[in-house]
Amino acid sequence: MNAYRNKIFWKTFILVCATLIGGVSIYYTNNLTSNIAEEEQKRMQIWAEATRQIAISNIDNEIGFYLEIIRNNTTIPVILTDDDNSVISTMNIPTSKTNDTAYYRKRLTEMAAKHDPIVINLPRNHKNFIYYDDSTVLRQLAHFPFIQMSIIAIFLIVAYLAFSSSRRAEQNRVWIGMSKETAHQLGTPISSLMAWIEILRQTPENSTYVAEMQKDIDRLQMIADRFSKIGSLPTLQPTNLTEAINTAVGYMRNRVSANITLDIKDNTNHNVMVRLNTSLFNWVIENMIKNAIDAMEGKGCITIKLNETLKFAEILMTDTGKGLPKNQFKAIFSPGYTTKERGWGLGLSLVQRIVKNYHRGKIMVQSSEIGVGTTFRILLPKVKEKDLASEA
């Protein structure tokens, strides 16, 4: 539970930091954009005054000075018009549009929508109007926050995918290492027990004990075999799902308390074929039944329903336990997450790994209600009849 909470904390922390960085960036850029826009408006006022002075001045030195001011504008699009709104001159407008009257009308409308035209009062009550637009730099800067946020988002997505991939690879290595080591450690005492059984068999009076001990050894060998399969691709064989479920549940039915009822409801045609590794699949069913028993605190009913669709075989396992809140539906499959006081949080994670990674299936919490129970859903791909025929 603590590991899962830590993971949620760090995800939230990173998201908050990214949002804060983006917010500060947008605020700073918008503030900078506003300042540049004000400076450009002041420049246009100076440009307008220079234009007016050229119109009324007769001194060549002064005209040259004002022309220099006008020529220094190399970024702001400008259209100068007369009283009738006829174009007198332009700056920083594409030369290919020189004779395009419709283009100028459109541009004048666009410019007027952004900035009020600057009025130049001339002698004899004549007026000129200066229409202008934002400079290229200002327009680019206005889009900068969105570009920056997109880059940050892409970086976070790539970082998250890389982190998730690395974490999954690390989890795989831990799973594989733990499983191989467990299988290895079990091998030595199993071999020793098998030797002791051979010695005990030499005394006829021990036959009853030997038979029971052999069952336990067979069980230990099966457990070791299951662990040895983790980390390597197991062999999957076309298997009758009804028979596989009956076998797995039958084994558990003989080993659970009399207060636990295990009920199978098969709604299929009893001939649904799926690709299974029987040993690992039995492990899945056993783990889920044990979890259900824990949730019911040793008393209740577990119902297993088998259904089929066109492509999938469906297993629904419903218990009468304490139920789960919705925020735990996905969390319970995370390694280390457990609601038990002394649990490791590995059972359902292992179940998901076996179903999803090895059997190409899906497992999920279909529904749950506090105090009523929980239903788990497993989907396994069906084997097509033509595939069975080709393998026969």
Description:
The structure is a single chain. The chain is an alpha+beta fold and 392 residues long. The chain folds into three domains: 2-134, Beta-Lactamase (2-Layer Sandwich), CATH 3.30.450; 164-229; 237-391, Histidine kinase-like ATPase, C-terminal domain (Heat Shock Protein 90, 2-Layer Sandwich). The chain contains nine helices and eleven strands. The chain has a five-stranded mixed sheet, covered by helices on one side. The two termini are 48 Å apart. The mean pLDDT is 80.
Order of helices and strands: HHEEHEEHHEHEEHEEHEEH
Secondary structure: number of strands: 11
Oligomer: single chain
Helix amount: 55-70%
| C-alpha termini separation | 48 Å
Domain count: the total is: 3
* CATH homology group of the largest domain: Histidine kinase-like ATPase, C-terminal domain
Radius of gyration over all CA atoms, rounded: 39 Å
Annotated CATH topology of the largest domain = Heat Shock Protein 90
Tell me the structural class.
Answer: alpha+beta
Percentage beta strand: 15-25%
How would you sum up the major sheet?
5 strands, mixed
CATH classification class of the largest domain: Alpha Beta
- What is the residue-averaged pLDDT? 80
> Helical stretch count?
9
Taking pLDDT < 50 over at least 5 consecutive residues as the criterion, the unreliable ranges are none
Q: Indicate the CATH architecture of the largest domain.
A: 2-Layer Sandwich
Strand order in the sheet with the most strands: 6-8-9-11-10
